[in-house]
Write the structure tokens for this entry.
Amino acid sequence: MSHTAHIRSHRKPRRSASTIAMRAGVAGGVLGTLAVAASGAANAAEPVTQTFEMPTLTGDLVAQIAQSADATQQAAADYQLRAERDAAAANAAKQAKADLAEAKQKAEAARKKAAEAARKAAAERASRDSARDTLSTSASGSTATQASTSTATGSAAAVIAFVKAQIGDAYVSGGTGPNSWDCSGLVQAAFKQVGIDLPRVSQDQSVAGTQVSLSNLQPGDILYWGSAGSAYHVAVYVGDGMFVGAQNPSTGVVMKPLSYDPPSGAVRML
């Protein structure tokens, strides 16, 4: 027996090749797993960038874009024009409605005015017809009565002489002589001859004296046409059923029978 037979060897026992290969495989698998895990973590942490290719602006594409812009602008202009036309039409309709309402009001006012004028004219005609009947009755009265209304004396004679002297003179609105007159200007001048100062216009002359009946006229009475206080014409009664007055521009100062234009009333100043 060798002297070293009982001394334990300090060498590690040798591993078999199969064991070493198995362990190397396991280690390789572990390392491969770790490498895959690390690669996945790295890929997860790194952001992904995508690249898009921008289209190239060709001449046709530019033209299409320009045409689209022009069409959009034209559509906007057309819309604005239609809106303005619609607004103008609405305003015109509103104005037409207001004008129609105003025209109706004016027409109604004119109708009422015409009706009132017709009513007044009818009343004046009725008054004249009544006066004509009265004058006809007076004309059929006694000779003594006619004589009493035909003879003018004193101041009445002077008034009658003056108006008869103006027969043939012209009628001029606002005329007060000496060769042209209007109706109230002639009457005023005639009574001025006897010291009576009459108002200037027919309306006032028709209420200047005492109202008398047309059936009881005397020479020198003032005849009026229309209503007392609103008369539109005056003349002087000269007797024998006649009057002298400045009638109108076509006749001038004339002497006419009462039946020619029957007066509405009379006032006596003398």
